[in-house]
Amino acid sequence: MTPSPPQTATTIAEARDLVKVFRDFWHRPKVRAVNDITFEVKRGEVFGLLGPNGSGKSTTIKMMLGLLHPTSGYLRVLDRSPDDVKTKARVGYLAEESYLYPYLTSEETLHFFGRLFNLNAKQREERIDQLLDMIGLQHARRRVVGEFSKGMARRIGLAQALINDPDLIILDEPTSGLDPLGCRQVKDLIRALARRGKTVLLSSHLLADVEDICDRIAILYNGRIQAMGSMHELLEQRNRYRVTLPEELAPDQLQRVLDEIRSVLGAEPDIDHPRLDLEEFFLRIIEKARNEVESQSGATPSHTLASYLSAPPS
Amino acid sequence: MSLAVKQFFTIARLTAVDAIRQPLAFLLFATTLILIALLPLILSHTLGESVKFVRDGSLGFMFVAGLILGAHMACASLSSEVRHGTVSVVLSKPIARITFFLAKYAGIAAVLLLFAAGTLMAVLLSVRTAFQAYVTDWWSATPLLLACVGAFVVGGLINYVLRRPFVSNAFLSLLMLLTLAFVFAGFVDQHGQRMAFGALYDFRILSAGSLITLAILVLAALSVSLATRLSTIPTLSLCGGLFFLGLLSDYFLGQHSATSQTARVLYYLLPNWQHFWVVDALGGDGSIPGGYVFMAGAYAVLYLAGILVFGVMAFQRMEVEG
Ligand SMILES: Nc1ncnc2c1ncn2[C@@H]1O[C@H](COP(=O)(O)OP(=O)(O)OP(=O)(O)O)[C@@H](O)[C@H]1O
Ligand SMILES: [Mg+2]
């Protein structure tokens, strides 16, 4: 059975029965990195490719960018072939390893990529200014990228991916190399992009990241999709319930509630104190420390999305 | 200006800027110039035929250093960018592969042209230094040496005072100081008297030099084509191998090409560097006929175009794995 192409206006990217086999020097099959995967990315959603190392995430992404050619299967991005320069004009890409031109400064790097999109000097100046504010590297404008810490390089990579105001943003492990603070900022940024109507496809093996930001995910293992669906569908346990009681409950009130539960269920409920997750805790500590000392960390972002990033016409 | 043309210049410019910011490029350039500058000083009192030695030796330095420089830039700007994934970021932008490939070559060729221009000025200065047997012409030797040393000083100062990168500024200062030295010495004779510009330069060397430059450009095209697919070591070895084969081509293949079909095919296919090495014709008052320079130039341009077409085709469908 071959499904007819569901070319609705809301499909941003679509892969069907996609296969990628890497071959050796003699053209013999070596690895089946992507094995018959089918998925769809819809407009405005944050779609996550989740999977352990070597599961085929980056390979899938590189096919979507026309960098690798599928061995077989159907792949469309923004209604065109991924090789098409018209597709590429509307896509932003952050590679797995943010290795840009080490001898260029942040500013020069962004100008370079802006020029490739035919942005004029004024547009570039404006966007670069906003982007540097957004990623918090305004102070490192004239420093060469080669000297940057991993996290700073990652941020420049992210800025570079947004310079053309793309409709589809493809991020290969966006939070790798970032400290928890940076992770949080990038995750907030991705959510903000989605709110502005951008479509984001990202890969990660960090479960917490994916859980926080993705609307839908596909779990890859060994080149195959093992599970796919919205976060909600996949994670909700429909036959279990959790009751949250108000804060500062008096001991006797709690006792009465528990007695009630026991009498209805005839069983002992589990109770404990909720914990902050470590991320939350860490961020609180850092926030506190930061108020005491002027920031030493490499980047201090403005927390505002660059304003040139436009909502795509629907 | 169309987008493709703009992209071409953007990438070519970046490639050139990036290349002269690499320490090895400056080191090669400076070393070549210092060797050329020292050659007449070492040789002048020991040998009667010092002009020939200085001329052949310095053009030889230029040839070999140019080859290494071209291959190095090709590897640094393609092999390692493919490996590190920089190329995949650039090719994820709306840019045609042919534009990217040709722009990379153009950027590298531009730096090689700067290198050739600088080196040829140094060759002219050095040959003049050695011109009078047994007497060193310090009015050309000193400016050349000062330019070499000065570049390090100026680069260092710019780095210290303005906090701009040392390497690229030293490279450009070297070029600038060299030009100054060349112009200055052009107006001053061996006794420090003013004279008409260039009376003591042997400008015939320029025709030999431009042929060598062409040969360097041809090999750079080869390096760039190979570097898209191969990593640094294989690229360097293959280019080195082809260089030597091309040198020996007359000797090994030329004599067999009358009898063996294979030898003849190889003979025509391999670049033949002998065509570009015409310095020997400059002995005494000899000069290289313009027609010859033209023919050799045409040979080089055709060869270059062939290699680039081949390189573009190979790059067109290449998978970018980095
Ligand atoms: N250029 C290549 N040549 C051969 N095999 C490759 C190549 N690139 C990737 N592979 C193989 O394909 C499989 C999937 O690799 P891929 O990089 O897509 O994984 P990934 O999910 O991105 O992993 P990670 O989380 O480590 O980034 C791996 O087995 C890998 O070894
Ligand atoms: Mg990966």
Q: Which CATH class of chain A is shown?
A: Alpha Beta
Write down the CATH topology of chain A: Rossmann fold
Given the structure, what is the number of helices of chain B?
A: 11
How much helicity do the residues of chain B have?
over 70%
What best-fitting shape of chain B do the alpha-carbon axes yield?
globular
User: Can you give the mean pLDDT of chain A?
Assistant: 87
Largest sheet of chain B: none
Q: Treating each run of at least 4 consecutive H or I residues as one helix, how many helices of chain A?
A: 10
First-residue to last-residue Cα separation of chain B: 32 Å
Helix proportion of chain A: 25-40%
Major sheet: arrangement of strands of chain A: 5-6-7-3-8-9
Q: Which parts of chain A are unreliable, with pLDDT below 50 for 5 consecutive residues or more?
A: 1-8
Ends of chain A: how far apart?
Answer: 32 Å
Task: Report the uncertain regions of chain B.
Answer: none
What portion of residues of chain B belong to β-strands? under 5%
Present as ligands are: adenosine-5'-triphosphate, magnesium ion
Commentary on this structure:
The complex is a heterodimer of chains A (314) and B (322). With 314 residues, chain A is an alpha/beta fold. Chain A has helices spanning 57-64, 85-88, 106-116, 121-135, 150-162, 180-195, 207-213, 231-235, 251-265, 278-292; strands at residues 11-23, 29-42, 46-50, 72-77, 91-94, 168-172, 199-204, 216-221, 224-230. The longest helix of chain A is centred in the middle third of the chain and has 16 residues, at 180-195. Residues 1-8 of chain A have low confidence and may be disordered. Chain B has 322 residues and is an all-alpha fold. Chain B has one domain (3-316). Chain B has eleven helices and no strands. Chain B has helices at 3-20, 23-43, 50-84, 86-91, 97-129, 138-162, 166-187, 205-229, 232-254, 261-269, 290-316. Chain B is globular, with a radius of gyration of 21 Å. The two termini of chain B are 32 Å apart. The mean pLDDT of chain B is 88. The interface between A and B is medium-sized, with 30 and 28 residues. Adenosine-5'-triphosphate (ATP) binds at residues 22, 30-31, 33, 51, 53-59, 96, 205 of chain A.
